[in-house]
Design brief:
282 residues, alpha/beta, 20% strand
Length: 282
Amino acid sequence: MLTGYENLDQKIEIFSRGQLSLLAGLPGAGKTALAINIVHNQLEVEKETRILYVTPGMPAQRLAERFIFLDSGISPYNLNFLNLDEKEIQKAISSSASKFQHFINEKKLKIIDDNLLTIADISSLCLDHFTEFDLIFIDYLQALKSSHGEEYASRNLIEIQLRELKKIARKSEAAVVLISQLKSYAGRPTAADLLPFSRLLRDEADKIILLHRIDNPAGERDWENEFNVNFNKIPEPVELFVAKNISGCTGSFDFFWEPATLAFQERTPEIEQYIRRLLREI
């Protein structure tokens, strides 16, 4: 399946029908942001694509806000940098909100945000009711519960859940993308940094995609503080690294990410020139 990023899609298919892909990074690395970018790209270009987004870790309203920030290019965190009047801002936000609602109404996008959702629940939903979905995001592994409602604790539980997700991918013929976390690392991350039970995750996933903010120190980020500094309008370099791919090649790809609007863009000479111009203005 295409991601909507031309250079990436020409070189490698990071999400494939019938396979389980693992998208991992540190907290604040942009995992959900990248997922929303891909959802947005798919809905804009692929008219027949239907997407299920399961988000026990985030309310659906927050996901909608992120989609609107991305689509409109406007968020509360970049208003100081936009040369727009209030009417223009409201018009852009309203247009993006209407677009999001249209995708929901047309059943091109379905969001489930039950924080008590288990893998068994997801399996039932996907296989019994939502088999028409082409792409399924589960955001994220650490927020899921066991079939008895407990937090993940044992290796056996994780193994069962991963195999159930692979079964969902195989039977529904959808691309299933499981978002997960990495433990702290020094330098570039590897598949050995996956959490929890890295060897199990490496063995069970069909594809492993690691997201690395090049200038991001390990740990949580102070978002409110970051969004109030001038340099926040400067896109940040991000590396997407495909560490495992059972059906193709692996490799590294460079992106720029704008945290305020969640926009991911492939690193091109045009973007490089744009960033140099922004730096001169500050």
